[in-house]
Amino acid sequence: xxxxxxxxxxxxxxxxxxxxxxxxxxxxxxxxxxxxxxxxxxxxxxxxxxxxxxxxxxxxxxxxxxxxxxxxxxxxxxxxxxxxxxxxxxxxxxxxxxxxxxxxxxxxxxxxxxxxxxxxxxxxxxxxxxxxxxxxxxxxxxxxxxxxxxxxxxxxxxxxxxxxxxxxxxxxxxxxxxxxxxxxxxxxxxxxxxxxxxxxxxxxxxxxxxxxxxxxxxxxxxxxxxxxxxxxxxxxxxxxxxxxxxxxxxxxxxxxxxxxxxxxxxxxxxxxxxxxxxxxxxxxxxxxxxxxxx
Amino acid sequence: xxxxxxxxxxxxxxxxxxxxxxxxxxxxxxxxxxxxxxxxxxxxxxxxxxxxxxxxxxxxxxxxxxxxxxxxxxxxxxxxxxxxxxxxxxxxxxxxxxxxxxxxxxxxxxxxxxxxxxxxxxxxxxxxxxxxxxxxxxxxxxxxxxxxxxxxxxxxxxxxxx
Lengths: 294, 162
Ligand SMILES: Cc1cc2nc3c(=O)[nH]c(=O)nc-3n(C[C@H](O)[C@H](O)[C@H](O)COP(=O)(O)OP(=O)(O)OC[C@H]3O[C@@H](n4cnc5c(N)ncnc54)[C@H](O)[C@@H]3O)c2cc1C
Ligand code: FES
Ligand code: FES
Prior knowledge:
Chain A is α+β, with helices and mostly antiparallel strands.
């Protein structure tokens, strides 16, 4: 058997799970969601949790619901594949299925969960960068507390979120994509289902005169967590999105805000090149999509 | 060693009751506790796909799920497809089109494609390529696998079988 021994809990309700993790969380116990990241790490013995609290039998954590304000709430255990194929998600937050298409393989997405991919905080993950650009709201519960966290506070670093050892991410609120909003998710990986070398997500709106409003752009694969392209956003907001301006705005972010590392898959220069080309392509696609709506 | 847990798992329609350690992987359970060696184990970290089984009808990796998580659930392995005398159309197609060479990846590909063809009975070549992108094969170069899946989809639509 590859993994080290652990005590196993399979609670049937959220209350029971919160009691279990309150008991074992501080002594090295962990939450088990889809297990598509945690179990490989256990097979390598890179992770050796003393106990696992398995959320897979808790029916109340599997749901996709509309909110009155035009957004969605998604239960943390909803399978990635379910979210990807859901018609309400496609209608209200089309950037989510667009990025999930790139995440691992369908077989992995059949088991992996929406909450797990966020709680894992993989710097090359597709969902964290989309969470930052859309500003997801995270519902976090423990036996004695109940709180919400914005995406800026939720992601802390590589595989690290603001979740405490006794807390469970139970639901994710996806805000409404404003009317006329254009979106785009782009990434480059060596093959589908492999870790992305770099990715970029864009959301923006155009007013009646075609001026950019509410532009948000974020990169993944350049730092320990998603990075907002503040300079490019500031240059694009309030202006006509000409090709020249888009190129200039992305260049300002690439020069001033991005500091990617090198690894065996890509050099610093190549990542910066991807940041330029994918960044500009993503903004252009979002502009075209925004212009097409009404 | 941690305490043994009693579990009840339906494998290919038969209910099996066993006592296992929580850390036992579902792939090891299928191979060593149930004695079904058709499910292969390659990487044991979710990458190669040869351990793919159907878990409540959905293709999943058995090497990154624990046996205790299958308690009360239903598993299908490659042994459920057919026998050498009476093969499933998918198996026939792999034989006719030479979709297996060493056969190491084949169980995972067959189970992935069983669910794939059920969802998408008339796939394009592009869709087949995407459908097997989570299964590694070191022998065939994939061409014959793609041909086999195409033939299987034709066979299945003619015979009306699932
Ligand atoms: C072959 C392969 C390729 C992959 N490729 C990609 C890829 O391209 N992009 C990508 O983003 N991911 C990829 N993954 C990872 C996959 O998407 C994971 O499923 C996902 O990142 C984690 O989700 P999970 O539900 O499996 O979580 P688990 O593995 O169960 O958990 C991951 C971590 O989050 C914690 N956690 C999970 N849920 C909660 C919760 N509700 N509350 C508190 N803590 C929680 C766990 O304790 C654990 O530390 C890949 C995996 C494989 C096997
Ligand atoms: S053995 Fe399970 S994916 Fe390789
Ligand atoms: S036939 Fe040998 S690995 Fe696929």
